């Protein structure tokens, strides 16, 4: 009798903060993720009572750490202001550069009560305003681009967030520009577009004389825009919604402050007047195409190797061939994530999530759960596929219970090399143990060989597969993709010494981690 009473929104037994949760309905909040415990349990119950879907997670290690990375961290000063604080957090998360916000409600607030008439309810915030760049800045940027000999357009995740895919594709095709997507901008323009130069990334960055940044930051992912990864005299045109980002690390030749979609439209209008198009027969394009062909041939050679254990490229080759083109890809790990970025194409925007700017391991399963909840409600049938390194999987592996509890048909693929970067095979591991305590003689990057992670999924009611050969991988993939009702995990054993192909300028080196 107690639980039904608590679930009634009109229940007088609910505390005022729980009633204040009604404010969230006005802010169109549909999902809540958290970990319950006294006195937070009642908050989750109140959320369900007003129609919010509550997802109980298992991994709490990032609650407090997230405070450092949020746009807004706030603690309400009283019960009365909770609705206003929620509205501000929602508004702050969407306005300008999007980002998460952190609200800390003191524990003693949860069971307090207050006069309803004193609660300061506010209306839902308006949609984010759309800002545009100054006309003079647009004209200057177009002039710099038109004078370029070796241009490069870099598409960042800010472009994905602003839903700029149609305008960016028009710009690419109108101007004949080679483009390079950053990891979570993959698919804004499809990876198989003829102007995509991701397979010649290092060369494109090093030799471009004009770079147009569309919602991308010159952080470590783009080598800070500095030599030797870039030309000393490279001209950067920076387009960003965040004024504080303009001029970071490199002094731009032109800055365009505004919404990426709106500013791209401005550039389209400017170039439609100029009738300028970069020649597809230029020496720059010839060099880029040559490098693309060379790199793709090297990757294909690795992918088609028949030797066992498999390497990364063989595994990703078979994954690419069998997963749906419209799936949502989640990826984390070191080599697993880096090689996956090049081997697994995206054809649609906002369908790739990875460790992102901070390279944070342990986020993959949480991302996958959130994506699967939304996909189930809005695009039924769309698959969420989470590709993890064995080390990355270990950070939040217990979220498999969450996945099975909510029966989310997520396909998890663990690329298992028995270690972090590299590991040891079973025989080498046994030999190492002969030298004494593993704490003193086993390499710190090594993990237990042949760990059966798939059994964790089986223990919670999902399907687990342990595969060692291409044929076993193909069979497991086909079975998992065809089963749209059951969570599954494929534990793919690869060569413990397998690494990415050697590059002149690797995307990510160990010194970056």
From TrEMBL:
The keyword Magnesium applies. It catalyses: 2-hydroxyoctadecanoyl-CoA = heptadecanal + formyl-CoA; a 2-hydroxy-3-methyl fatty acyl-CoA = a 2-methyl-branched fatty aldehyde + formyl-CoA; an (R)-2-hydroxy-long-chain-fatty acyl-CoA = a long-chain fatty aldehyde + formyl-CoA. GO terms for cellular component: peroxisome. Pfam families: TPP_enzyme_C, TPP_enzyme_M. The keyword Cell cycle does not apply. Residues 138-267 form the Thiamine pyrophosphate enzyme central domain. Keywords: Lyase, Magnesium, Metal-binding, Thiamine pyrophosphate. GO terms for molecular function: 2-hydroxyacyl-CoA lyase activity; magnesium ion binding; thiamine pyrophosphate binding. It comes from the Eukaryota. GO terms for biological process: fatty acid alpha-oxidation. Residues 337-492 form the Thiamine pyrophosphate enzyme TPP-binding domain. Its cofactor is thiamine diphosphate. Its EC number is 4.1.2.63. Belongs to the TPP enzyme family. This is 2-hydroxyacyl-CoA lyase. It comes from Corvus moneduloides (New Caledonian crow). The lineage of its organism: Eukaryota, Metazoa, Chordata, Craniata, Vertebrata.
């Amino acid at each position: 009798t107690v639980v039904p009473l608590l679930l009634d929104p009109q229940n007088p037994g609910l505390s005022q903060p729980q009633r204040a949760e009604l404010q969230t309905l006005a802010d169109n909040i549909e999902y809540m993720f958290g970990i319950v415990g006294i006195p937070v349990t009642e908050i989750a119950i109140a959320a369900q009572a007003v129609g919010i879907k509550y997802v109980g997670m298992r991994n709490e290690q990032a609650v407090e750490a997230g405070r450092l990375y949020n746009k807004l961290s706030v603690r309400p000063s009283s019960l009365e202001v909770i609705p206003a604080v929620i509205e501000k957090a929602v508004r702050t998360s969407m306005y300008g550069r999007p980002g998460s916000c952190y609200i800390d409600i003191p524990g003693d607030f949860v069971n307090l009560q207050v006069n309803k008439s004193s609660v300061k309810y506010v209306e839902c915030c308006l949609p984010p305003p759309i800002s545009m760049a100054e006309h003079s800045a647009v004209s200057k940027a177009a002039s710099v681009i038109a004078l370029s000999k070796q241009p490069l357009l870099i598409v960042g995740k800010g472009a994905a967030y602003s839903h700029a895919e149609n305008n960016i594709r028009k710009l690419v095709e109108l101007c004949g520009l080679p483009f390079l997507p950053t990891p979570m901008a993959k698919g804004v323009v499809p990876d198989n577009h003829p102007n995509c130069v991701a397979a010649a990334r290092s060369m494109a960055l090093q030799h471009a004389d004009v770079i147009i940044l569309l919602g991308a930051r010159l952080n470590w992912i783009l080598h800070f825009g500095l030599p030797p990864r870039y030309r000393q005299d490279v001209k950067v045109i920076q387009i960003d919604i965040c004024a504080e980002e303009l001029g970071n690390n490199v002094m731009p030749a032109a800055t365009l402050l505004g919404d990426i979609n709106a500013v791209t439209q401005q550039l389209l209008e400017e170039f439609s007047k100029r009738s300028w198009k970069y020649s597809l027969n230029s020496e720059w394009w010839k060099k880029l195409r040559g490098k693309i062909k060379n790199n793709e041939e090297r990757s294909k050679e690795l992918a088609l190797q028949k030797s066992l254990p498999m390497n990364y490229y063989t595994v990703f080759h078979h994954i690419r061939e069998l997963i749906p083109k419209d799936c949502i890809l989640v990826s984390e790990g070191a080599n697993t994530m880096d090689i996956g970025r090049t081997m697994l194409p995206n054809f649609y925007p906002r369908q790739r999530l990875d460790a992102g700017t901070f390279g944070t391991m342990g986020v993959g399963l949480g991302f996958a759960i959130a994506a699967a909840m939304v996909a189930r409600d809005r695009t039924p049938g769309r698959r969420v596929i989470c590709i993890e390194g064995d080390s990355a999987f270990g950070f939040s592996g217990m979220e498999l219970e969450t996945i099975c509890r909510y029966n989310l048909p997520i396909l998890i693929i663990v690329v298992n090399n028995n270690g972090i970067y590299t590991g040891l095979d079973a025989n080498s591991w046994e030999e190492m143990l002969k030298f004494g305590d593993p704490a003193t003689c086993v390499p710190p990057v090594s993990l237990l060989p042949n760990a059966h992670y798939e059994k964790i999924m089986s223990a919670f009611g999902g399907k687990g597969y342990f595969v060692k050969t291409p044929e076993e991988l193909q069979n497991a993939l086909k079975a998992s993709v065809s089963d749209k009702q059951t969570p599954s995990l494929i534990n793919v054993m690869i060569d413990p010494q397998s690494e990415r192909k050697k590059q002149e300028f690797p995307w990510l080196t160990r010194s970056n981690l």
